[in-house]
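Protein in question reproduced for absentees:

***
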Amino acid sequence: MTKKEFLNILYEQLSDQMPEAKASAHTQYYHDYIQDAIKRGQKEKQVLDSLGDPRLIAKTLIDTDAEPSVFSGTNTSDYSGQDIYHTENTGYGNQSDSEYGQPKHRHYHLDLSTWYGKLIVIVAAAAVLALLFMVLSFLLPVILVVGVVLFLVSQFRKRH
């Protein structure tokens, strides 16, 4: 199964049971998810295999549609006449989420299995150690002076 077939099946199943806007938004979500996974280096077949059957996904989304979702607080009539997803078009979601009342939130997760994830950890550790050594290099002379002064004061008190 290809990405387009997966998305078409998902959209067809969803559009029969829920408003077009929600079906389009769910389909757009899976389109973006697949694209992101491919950009991270996974093969399209691997991503689609990990997702499973689009009919099962559609059934799960339909079953949970009665529960509060990302669309709570928005008026679904605002979506009428605005078709985000077209089955014959591959230009999914040319409109941004904010045009439909949903702010776009990006979450970045550091993947430590990649070379740049490991590099970021090494650089952060080096920065923390450098800061620690810098603070200690300023405090060490002060600590030594205070220690010598306290030693001399204690020796002075013992004699008197």
